[in-house]
Structure formats: structure tokens, C-alpha cells
Records
---
Amino acid sequence: MSFNVLKQKSGYFSLILTIVSGLGWSNAVIALELDIASEVVEVSQAGPVERHKIFLSRLKKISNSLSRDEYQMVQGVLQGQTYKADDDATLEEVMASLDRAVDEGYERLFECVGRGCGSSNEWANAVFGQPKLYGPESTQFYWVGKAVQSQTYWLVYGSKRSNKAVHYRVESVVSAAPSLHPFHIRQLPLPTRRNASSGSAFRVT
């Protein structure tokens, strides 16, 4: 994963989500740090989930239901926070910050940018329950990964409206057991990539 950095900010914000297990796991601190100036606008306290669906594809709606073709079902402890980046921060800067944060120690499961992610309204409201995340389909991104050394899944979604600051959501699920696969998950094509010298990893449509 590699995003262009359009502007380097002098300030930074480190996102650290702490998950303290109460369901039989040993206590642990799991951190995903984004080095971009932001403020917390919503916190979802850690709580158990039995069948939490992690989407691994472009989000679409069929007969008033979200597509079930490509996702992973997990159980464990879910926690999340929503952030507002500085007013002058660009979507590309937030993506670049995420790129640096997951450069090592994470296995990428899925990522998309722009219209390749599908409906921003569905991501914001149906998936994350955060209306602040809604924006044009052309200015959004979504990333899913798994920590290499733990059973922790990470989801990051962000978007920007033309006259609003970038809002992004970071969620983690500490899995209590191997993933559940009640439905077929198709092999996903990788996004179009370029080498580091040529620029962005994604073609925004």
C-alpha cells in the first residue's frame, strides 16, 4: 500500500486504541498510530461481538440489503473511534498517514479508493453508523488489515466533503477464535499499483 504525500504537516496525532480483555484473553495494548493532526469526535467503547461482518469488497446494495458476496465474519471485542482531521488536511494526507502506519506488521486484506469503494452513504450509515463519514463517492477510502502478530483486525474508512474537513473512522476487532466463513468469499483482485517513484497506489475513478 502506498499513497502520495501532498503536504507534510508539522503537528501530528497518534491514534492508540487500548483493548483490555475481559473475556479470557490476556491483557494487551494494540496500537495503530496515525501521525496526522486530528481530534476525536466519537468513541465507541469496547464490547463483545459474536458475528461481526468485515466487508472485503466494493459496497453495493441489492434488494435493499448490503452485498454478502465478499466479507469475513469474526467474533471478539470491537472498539472504534471517529476523528476529524485539521481543516487544511487533505484526504491524500490522511491516506498517506495510514500508509506509514501499516507499512510493517500488518497483512492487508482489502483496500479501495474513490468510486471503487461503492456507496459512501452505506459505509457511513449502514456499516459504521457514523453519519459524519458520509461524503462524495469520489473522495473516500477504505482499508482492512490484520496485525501479523495477533488476532486483531483493523478497519479504516475516511471521506471528505468539498467544504468539510476529512473525517475518518478506525475500528479494531480482537478476535477470540479463527474467522467464521458462512458464505463464499471470492478471491479479490488487487488494486492497480505503481512503484514508489511513480506515485499513488490506486487509480481513483
---
Amino acid sequence: MPAAAFSSSRGQSVTGLYEVDCVPGLAVCLACGAGLYAMMVAAQELRLGTAGVVAAAGADSPSNIRRAVLVPSFTDLSAGEPISAGAHRLALEYGFDRSAQDRWALLSHTRAKAARKSGLFDSEIVPVSGLDFDDAVLSNPEPGHFSSSEALYPDSSTTHANTHAIVDGGAALMMASASALTGLAGAKPVGRYLADAVVAPDPRNM
């Protein structure tokens, strides 16, 4: 029996993954880690043999969240500081100063732009409301865009440009056990799930 492991950091419903309403599903909500945890749940079902094929999916839509709710969510209550403060501290600890982070962000956008232009991920993208590309990728990434960006807070090496974008998006994949795969005509695996783990670092270094 197929199953569904659906993740969302904003509590969206599992309804709509399938055209029928008789497929068991599970929703998990772990903010930024929810998508990965959905895959872990799916892998567990496959290992236990309680499912042969599982759809693991994740989605988030911060544009539908009121700013008064969204902005405070970026302060980690367990650490008593903004998440960006932890990013700044870890970056310096591992030798990534502001200029290094800016260079990496520039390289990331440059590579993403090239991938989009070449159509590298076209086969993996499902258009939504007419949008069929990642609009968070800069169309003309330049060093000056990053070097002139405002820090998220005073003396921070993390800026509005070299950190992640806050965008709507989602991803999904089908996972199957080796035995179930033999019964899926034409199915071609693109990867193998090897292992997973949950760790508990200092909350300030999430």
C-alpha cells in the first residue's frame, strides 16, 4: 500500500498528494528540517515493511504568513537570539568571514543561473501558477550586490544577500523498497537512501 510522508513548517494539509482519499498519510512539522524528516519517516516505513512505495514531500509558503508572525519566528526562543546570530558565530568559528560568505553566495547564484539557462533541472520542475523556474536566483549576480548588502544586525557577517532567500516552494520524491521496485514497470531509480541520523547540538549553534 502506498503511503505519504508530508512535511510543512506552516501546517499545510497532506490532502492533494493523491487523487484518492484512501492513501494513509502523515504530516510532520519541524520548520526548516521538516522536508528532510519526511524522507526519514518514509525510509523508516520502507525498512519496516509497512509500506512499499512512499511519496515524501515538503512545502512552505511564507508569503501567506503575516509579517507580525513570520519575523519573530526567526528568533530562536531556546537560544534567546536570532538564528542569524548562530550562523554568524559558526561562520567565524570555521574561518568564513564576510568576504568569504559573499564570494560563496555569488558563486552559488552564478551556478544556479547557469543551471537554469541550460535547463539542467527542467525535468524536475512542475509549474505552479505559471511559474516554472526558481525566481529567487539572481538574474545578474554581481560582486557589488553582495559587498554592499546590509548586515542582518550590527557587526554581523551574515547579510540580506549572502543568506538564504525567504520564498515559497516545495519538493517531492517517490521512495520505494527494493522488493517493491521490481514490481514497478519502467521505474528507474535515481539514487539510493543509505542512512539518516538525528543529532542534538547546542541550540545556539543550530
